[in-house]
Write a structure and sequence with these properties.
Rossmann fold; N-(1-d-carboxylethyl)-l-norvaline Dehydrogenase, domain 2; 8-stranded mixed β-sheet; 29 helices; binds (2S,3S)-3-hydroxy-2-methylbutanoyl-COA
């Protein structure tokens, strides 16, 4: 924090009140106290005709200080609503100067000002509180609808989206855009107000924008139904609707009190704690424990992707989206053309859906080149191999890349499970070999598991982690083991789903229980989406590898159902049927009696007496072994911290964010309960279910994964 978190200087008769609290000018107690003091002084100063409030550095402000939540507010600092109330009630016009980000309390502060100007470029405003499990707590649910209307305000606040300044102008959030320095622009705007004798325009008094919703009482009710589905169990979106409804039915001050009470109720809720955990966990994951902050990340000016199939094309798109020239290398002109067409189609689809302009598509496509000649990628700084999941093939390719690429180039493999150390050993630069495991579709999913090999250097790690951030990804550093973190845990979860349907459940019951828990999809629908043949091929490969090594077949419990479905040619959505049936052109899974018959037949073959299975048993049988595997991963040092495992599951598998991630969720349940359940499962089924020693220790000591 600067010496003074808020300063006041004079620009003629305009008082400039500047927030200076790096890195994001968060509105913590010291800032609120100083802001209140300086605004009061400016209002009292007879030489001041108007006030501009602005932020130093990168942005106006990232909002309230999230780290203060859950702690009693300091008595000697006003709460944000009090500061905003002083601004709004003031007798002199106040102009908020918005640049960079104005999020949450920052936008609420700006809405309490009488006018708002924003920098044209690189500016985003929004009320993302709902993503933290709360509602705007400083008047946002009352002032935003009064500024832009109820429907747009509901959409902004229940999505938590940040919008660019041009859209903010169109909606009416800001009164003017400023090309140059936003503070100068705001001062000029304030001077004009004074010259024109324009006084304060108090948002609390603006009722015109509420008229439409008042005339259409169904609007709020319909919106509440609409977001109930998308919220998937998260409470805060519905709470936002309640606060906006109060704007229509109560006086401003009564509704403000309702909003504050709602904020106070939610800020201490389990969902808000979990969402705050997720917010900080994502940022913590970028920190590598044994990597000093000063290890330089090498710039990545030119990239190359080896293989332009589904994954390779998706990865190439990530580079183009980040404005990094990328050359894709394929083994034949036909495959290259197919791969480039895949990239072009992806962008064309975005243009069609108005997610991207044609100009932007052309710009990004111009960054993508294709070749079949290895020599053409010799100048790349960072090369990602995304070819077939076969160790021999990968080692051969890495030998060639090692020979072709400049010595400083980093060679990364997109393998989802294979041993990065073995791949690195095929080169003369193992220190510059790393895993960058993207999740499919690579241009959509934000997670990248960055897999450090034994020989991977700290510079290579720093460069790869920085690249993930540059690509807009969430990079999580993991160690080498079979399937790293996400898929290794997913395997433990998927096995239990298979066994549950042998014992009495059906795919649709398991999927519904998992969806009701908050996942976007259950395991069976997910397999149909990914393609059953993918898992089938990997299982066949592993069985063949065991045989080739002279090992006996894997003795652990195994369900043949998935293999049989694959052998029926039912690969899932891509063939119109898999675990479910799909009507032509539709993606909604329809339970298929054929599959139920197959499942019952396997239960009989195995001599399993089918029985009713409860949803609670499904959750425990699928998710506790997932947590148990996470505990083993943590203990083996494959993940740096429990919260990293949470980040993998939040961004790679859609674990409900308002539950914080599997390890946070288990801590909330209590590890003794999870451990006892694992002991019972292990007692009955043995198999992979032996409780992890770390889980046992923490359960007995009353500890949490978060403390490891
Ligand atoms: N409070 C505390 N710390 C924050 C913070 C905040 N609001 N925002 C960021 N940080 C920390 C972050 O943890 C990181 O710390 C560093 O600042 C840089 O962040 C009353 C109640 C503003 C768009 O939800 O979206 O207002 O890791 O890496 O990429 O109704 O931060 O360096 O130790 O993300 O440039 C609502 C949250 C709060 C916005 C900047 N506000 N922040 O992104 O930097 S609730 C938000 C962001 C509220 C009111 C309610 C982003 C950013 P460290 P960063 P960035």
């Amino acid at each position: 924090m600067g010496a003074e978190p808020v300063t006041r200087t004079g620009r003629g008769r305009i008082a400039l009140v500047m927030i200076d609290n790096p890195p994001v000018n968060s509105l913590g107690a010291a800032v609120r106290r100083a802001l209140d003091r300086e605004v009061a002084a400016a209002l009292d100063d007879p030489n001041t005709a108007a006030i501009v409030i602005a932020g130093k550095g990168r942005m106006l402000s990232g909002g309230a200080d999230i780290r203060e939540f859950g702690k009693p507010p300091p008595a000697d600092a006003p709460i944000l609503p009090q500061v905003i109330d002083r601004i709004e009630r003031g007798t002199k016009p106040v102009v908020a100067a918005i640049h960079g980000t104005a999020a949450g309390g920052a936008l609420e502060l700006a809405l309490g000002a009488h006018y708002r100007v924003a920098a044209t470029e690189n500016t985003r405003v929004g009320l993302p509180e709902v993503t933290l499990g709360i509602v705007p707590g400083a008047g946002g649910t009352q002032r935003l609808p009064r500024t832009i209307g109820v429907k747009p305000a509901l959409e902004m606040m229940t999505s938590g989206e940040l919008i660019a300044s041009k859209r903010a102008l169109a909606l009416g959030i800001v009164d003017a855009l400023v090309e140059g320095d936003v503070v100068d622009g705001a001062v000029r705007f304030a001077e004009r107000l004074v010259a024109e004798g324009k006084g304060p325009r108090r948002t609390r008094e603006r009722e015109d924008k509420l008229a439409e919703a008042r005339a259409n009482p169904n609007l709020v009710a319909e919106f509440r139904q609409q977001i109930k589905r998308s919220a998937r169990g998260q409470e805060s979106p519905g709470a936002v609707v309640d606060c906006v409804e109060a704007a229509l039915t109560k006086t401003f001050d009564e509704a403000l009190a309702f909003e504050r009470a709602t904020f106070q109720r939610l800020v201490g809720s389990d969902q808000a704690k979990a969402l705050r955990h997720a917010f900080f966990a994502e940022r913590e994951a970028a920190r590598v424990k044994d990597l000093p902050e000063d290890i330089p990340a090498a710039p990545v000016g030119r990239a190359a992707v080896m293989g332009c199939g589904t994954m390779g094309a998706g990865i190439a798109i990530c580079f183009a989206n980040a404005d990094i020239p990328v050359r894709v290398l394929e083994s034949s002109p036909e495959l290259l053309d197919k791969g480039l067409a895949r990239i072009r189609q992806t962008y064309a689809g975005m243009v069609e859906r108005k997610r991207l302009s044609q100009d932007e598509m052309d710009k990004r496509m111009a960054l993508v080149a294709g070749t079949t000649a290895m020599a053409d990628i010799a100048d790349a700084d960072f090369v990602i191999e995304a070819i077939f999941e076969d160790m021999a093939l990968k080692k051969e390719v890495f030998r060639k890349l090692d020979a072709a690429c400049r010595p400083a180039a980093i060679l990364a493999t997109n393998t989802s499970s294979l041993d990065v150390n073995e791949i690195a050993a095929a080169t003369r630069r193992p220190d510059r070999v790393i895993g960058t495991h993207f999740f499919s579709p690579a241009n959509i999913m934000r997670l990248v598991e960055t897999v450090r090999g034994k020989a991977t250097s700290r510079e290579t790690i720093a460069t790869s982690m920085a690249l993930a951030k540059k690509l807009g990804k969430v990079g999580v550093l993991v160690g080498v083991c079979d399937s790293f973190v996400g898929n290794r845990m997913y395997y433990a979860y998927g096995r239990q789903a298979d066994f549950l349907i042998e014992e009495g459940a059906l795919p649709q019951q398991v999927d519904k229980a998992i969806q009701d828990f908050g996942f976007p999809m259950g395991p069976f629908a997910t397999r149909d989406l990914a393609g059953i043949d993918v898992g089938y091929r990997i299982r066949q490969q592993r069985a063949a590898q065991r045989k080739a090594q002279g090992l006996p077949p894997d003795p652990r419990r195994y369900s043949p159902i998935a293999d049989r479905i694959a052998e029926m040619g039912r690969y899932g959505q891509k063939t119109g049927q898999g675990w479910y049936r799909y009507e032509k052109g539709a993606r909604a899974p329809v339970p298929d009696p054929e599959i139920e018959k197959l499942i019952v037949a396997v239960s009989q073959e195995k001599g399993i007496q089918r029985r009713p299975v409860t949803d609670q048993e499904i959750i425990e049988r699928c998710l506790y072994p997932l947590v148990n595997e996470g505990a083993k991963i943590l203990e083996e040092g494959i993940a740096q911290r429990a919260s990293d495992i949470d980040v993998v599951w939040l961004y790679g598998y859609g674990f409900p964010r308002w539950r914080g991630g599997p390890m946070f969720w288990a801590d909330q349940i209590g590890l003794a309960k999870v451990y006892d359940a694992m002991c019972r499962l292990y007692e009955r089924d043995r198999d992979w279910l032996e409780p992890a020693p770390l889980l046992a220790r923490l359960a007995k000591s009353g500890g949490k994964f978060a403390e490891v």
